[in-house]
Amino acid sequence: MAKLVSSLWLVVLGVVAGWPAGGIAAPPEISNVYPDYPGFGPHIITGEGFDSGSTEVWTWEPSARETMEKEAAGRLGGDLSELPARPPEGARRVGMLDVERQVIVASLNGAVLWVKTAEGFSKPYLFNVAKPLWVSESKAAPGGLAYVFGFGLRPQYRRCTIAMKSDTVTFFPRMIVEARALRTADSRLVYFEVPKDVAAGRYSVYVHNSYGGRWGWRKAGELEVASPLNGQEKVFNVRTHGAKGDGLANDYRAIQNAVDAASKAGGGTVFFPPGTYATDRTILVPVDVRLRGANRDTS
Hints:
The chain is built from 4 helices and 23 strands. By secondary structure, it is of the alpha+beta class. Strands 3, 4, 7, 8 and 9 form a 5-stranded antiparallel beta sheet that branches. The relative contact order is 0.13.
């Protein structure tokens, strides 16, 4: 028995002695890339198993053709497990600025990253794609305006695409390129118009910043589209509710009363005759109410 135990210990010690200092040799792992949105660099890659003697960094940018992206929108958010396990044709090796066992510094392009050592390639890591945080509205009417807020949404010299998807259909809303200077100046905002002919219902909103091909779609949130107002809608005149429109009087209460009346009636249009309407508070407008002036120049 003593000889058997001794033999087992010799086997265990022999196996352990054959292990590398860090444990069983394994391919490198990528845990994070910073910054992880286009237009900034150099990048810091963190992970495990990097080796200054044999490490290589490879990047690849999947096709960004608009037709391919829109075809992929049928199953938005491509399965990341389908990313190539190894750099495909068209991938390029990137020079490194520095490398340690857990950190690599390099200037990266593309959208998919691999790190290679003598032990093999890491799993592919998707970066530079859009990072949406939320949609501005939870409800909207057909023809209404909404925006997505996040990071890496509008890279320089690239286009951004929005998709609205229900269980049965996918729409690509019109992007608002020239809304107001303040709206378009911030690269963290992307404005879009809810299609006028979209059916009422709940839609998932996705954004694509042109990086990542079919894997580049990212969900921003949910948007409920209300039923469009019909031709029999009621019109509520703010003057009838006490608004003066002289640019001096505070018309907040009159305007809000008109909006509330339209909402209680099941929806309608609040009309502003020619004039200048001043208010010192925000007007709360439900999704089933529209605001309309006489024309662009007079109200």
